[in-house]
Amino acid sequence: MATTTSTLQPPSFLQPTGYRLVVRRERFPNLEFFAQSVNHPSINLAPAIQPFRGVDAAFPGDKIDYTELNLLVMLDEKMHIYEEMVKWLESTVYKNMQRPTATGLASKDQTEYDMSLLVLTSGNVISRTITYKSAFPTFIGDIEFASTPGTLQYISFPMTFKFTSFSFT
Q: Helix (H, G, I), strand (E, B), or coil: what is residue 28?
């Protein structure tokens, strides 16, 4: 009787702390170092409903909806990261109010950037890169200053980004 041997290797599970978030480093040097957590967004495909003889038949839809990319960012003492993000958010609004000829196509101060989430192995080697295309901030959360006794917890604030799509490399 022939025996078979399994070629299945035990999986190496992804560690929750093995990541780096990178946006355009020249403009946002602090985001890479202070992103405390990143929630990769969910993907929704709304079905197309077709009524037929008293029953609604569902078919695969034709539109993919990505939820928002949520970050929890630690605040540095000089609040550089917060200032960077506020400037990005404000420049998005004010740049959209200008004529396209005023900003120029070759402007280094864009309102949307590709963001890359570098997923690291247990040896801190990049295993995958998730690139969020044309990302821009839509929300900067509250910063709570509180003088309550207890263990020291560093201040962080939430941020939300919208993007058009993402890809793996």
A: coil
